[in-house]
Amino acid sequence: MHCSARALYHNLTPIKQPLAPCARISPSSGSNPNPILRRDFASSSLLLLLITPNTTNPLRAETISPDCADPAPTKQAFIDVAVDGEAIGRIVIGLYGDSVPAGAARFGEIVSGAGGVSYRRKEFVKIMPNYVQHAGLRSYGADAELARKTGSELAVDRLVEEWERQNENCTGTKNVARSVSIIVRDPSKPPPKLKLVARKGKLEIDQEEVGMDPNGTEFVITTKDSPELDGSALVVGTVLQGMDVVDRISRVKTVQENSTSPYFRVAKLIGDKRAVVAERGFNRPYSKVVITNCGLIE
């Protein structure tokens, strides 16, 4: 019996006498390697795999249990909507105060106007096939000043942290139909530009931000499952009543998207600012869709 096979047999069968040491095979000049070695080794390895219990636990898709179930709402909010001055109804939203406390608190504070700012008289500015988007608070003027006084920058940081945890805990689609989500980041934002500056007689490299980050006040309401929002929006609640109102908003006529036009693509490629302005108008409703009243339901 060859040494490798004998060693395997010794490991599998109790033997009282110790095995004799295997003789060393010293290749001589002109001699070929033993052709049995590779075959015996393969046979013994196969036998070892057959008799050794499989203790490995490979990570498979079916073993991952995404925790994407909707949590129980802890608080309710409402928004009343009008299209071109005509009231179309009320949307009641359940907020997830336990699973996303910062996000639910942020939305609740703005809805109620507790921080001096509110969604009242603010417009829905984008209507997509799967969701409608509200403009939130402006990044300039009185709203921005009041938002800074309420610590909005710290709030945005907490929202991003909750968004990261939500993506870790749920590997499936987060923004399912009826979801209410706050936009916390812009995946399309380009990375900072590096520039060389002189400070105290020394050259240093600075990073210059390109564009603005979301201020944590824009929100979306989904009419269908919208995985395209998972990279930017934190789910903070769900529509409990008034999906007929959301559907009515989604049927408002909008500016047709024209991003496939060769003229638009060339203008965007060369950095024409008119293309940027035109792009902002894509999917914007022709009618004025406004929140006329909003607040928390006690």
Automatic annotation (TrEMBL):
Its EC number is 5.2.1.8. Transmembrane segments: none annotated. The keyword Metal-binding does not apply. GO terms for molecular function: peptidyl-prolyl cis-trans isomerase activity. Keywords: Isomerase, Rotamase. It comes from the Eukaryota. Belongs to the cyclophilin-type PPIase family. Signal peptide: none annotated. PPIases accelerate the folding of proteins. It catalyzes the cis-trans isomerization of proline imidic peptide bonds in oligopeptides. Residues 78-296 form the PPIase cyclophilin-type domain. This is Peptidyl-prolyl cis-trans isomerase. It catalyses: [protein]-peptidylproline (omega=180) = [protein]-peptidylproline (omega=0). One of its GO terms (cellular component) is chloroplast. It comes from Sesamum angustifolium. Pfam families: Pro_isomerase (PF00160). It is an enzyme of class 5 (isomerase).
